[in-house]
Amino acid sequence: MRSKIQGCDYHPSFQQVAFVDTESGELGERRLLHREEAEQFYGKLREQGREARVGMEASGHSRWFERLLRDLQFESWIGDAAEIRTKRVRKQKTDRQDAQLLLRFMLEDRFPRIWVPDAENCDLRQLLWHRHRLVQMRTRVMNQLHVVALNEGLRRKKALWRPAGREELQSIALAPWAGRRRQHLLDLLDQLTPKIQELTRALEAEVEKRPGGASLDDTPRGGGADGVGFRVGDRNTATLSLREADRQLRRAGSSGRVERRAPAAGPHQQARQCAAAVSVSRGCAGAPTTGAPCAIPSSTLPTPIKRQPDAPTCAKGLFTRA
After folding, report:
1. Which residue, 119, 124, 236, 300, has fewest beta-carbon neighbours within 10 Å?
2. Residue 313 covered by a domain
3. Do 156 and 166 belong to one domain?
């Protein structure tokens, strides 16, 4: 079966392609407008019974094109844009040259291909990100209502969202436009909460289908700025930020398991570890004070930190008065 290898410089409104026929060695270039002309071009290749391998840089706004190639059973390669940029020798950069460069990398087996999630994984990410954005919207609404309460001398913290706290917030006498703003914010809060709960149930159902999955936690932990994290394992384990979880999903491949790595210890933590190790090495806790050392292998003790000499506080004698 005749096949075609094609380098595609993708843009939101068009794509510049450079292709070669593996059987006849014929080279060609085309500029395809989105979406009708591109769909006709690739559909004609499928009608002719030809196979195609399309290579393109990782970019946005290309989900429909990737879905088109997948439906037509064409092979699509997504390349690392940063690595492709470092391999470009010429300073001049045009759409034709970019397509030709991608084609040359594919022919020379130097295309920096990256892992791409499958269709099911992409759809689950849409569920995850949609819930994440709604939680952010709800947080902003709650922060505005909290500011309204603080400006009127009402400080209830988390108790403000309980029934008693909400009644107290609604009973505050405000100016006409300030009162309308408060009512609109409360209406938005009532609309967002059921939607988030519905998405949470759907996401937890998907998590339970996969062994070793993570559960959701809306409480900001571990320095997460978005208020949404993954709690891995039991309740006592730390949470994982949404961005780090998405990055690990890309590295995990099709397994979809998310694991949290321990953070690197800072200088103060290392100092405490060294002090604890020295105290333990002198004697075990709870052991009789007979001077018997604790049997701890030296390989398990951390390397002591060398303290740098302090810089001089002042420089004397460097300058003399004329």
Report:
1. 236
2. no
3. yes
